[in-house]
Amino acid sequence: MNPADIAQSVAPLTSSNLSLFQLFWHAHWIVETVIAGLMVCSVWVWAIAIDKTFLFSRIRKAGDHFEQAFWSGQSLDELYKSLAAKPEHSTGVLFVAAMREWKRSFEGPARSFAGLQMRIEKVMDVAIAREVEHMERRLLVLATVGSAGPFIGLFGTVTGIMTSFQSIAASQNTSLAVVAPGIAEALFATAIGLVAAIPATIFYNKFTTEVNRQAQRLEGFADEFTAILSRQIDERG
Length: 237
What we know:
By secondary structure, this protein is mainly α. The chain has helices at 3-10, 20-25, 29-70, 76-83, 90-106, 116-135, 139-171, 176-236. 30% of the residues are buried.
């Protein structure tokens, strides 16, 4: 695109109609692509944030309910039978994995006490790792948008400013009425980049903290449950 074409493309936009829609509609195609991509990323960020908010809310409530049942004195076998088919929360998955290994060792044709505690600990470590991986899913998207969003917006801004300078040179008019619309178009890309990046960074930090909190909760339960099973192993050994 030569300078004359650039000048014609920005001519319809004046300082009197600097609406967001007009800024986007009359921007250079690279700037439009950047803005559209950042808008999609912003929607994606909020969709992930809403999904994770409900996910962690369910995990906390289910964990509280399970621990209440676990420490209520209910038989571990009964609790295992009620959860074995499909545990619906992280702590339940951990409990079922440990109890399944326990039953394999005690209810099989040949009882195997040797290394049982170590095997149970390994099974629960694997279960914790899988649950943490599930909770961290799509957090990389938030981290990427939060870190790269401003730079992508800046790229659109630089492109828009270069285009504006070319149009100014072609029209040979440096009045504010001619300069302002092109600069506004360029800065709009940076603004959209910040709109996408700021919530993404906030949500990433929030959910990372929540993942660490839930991981610590699972590890604490694993330690307590291992101690209970260890005592039973010593009694049966």
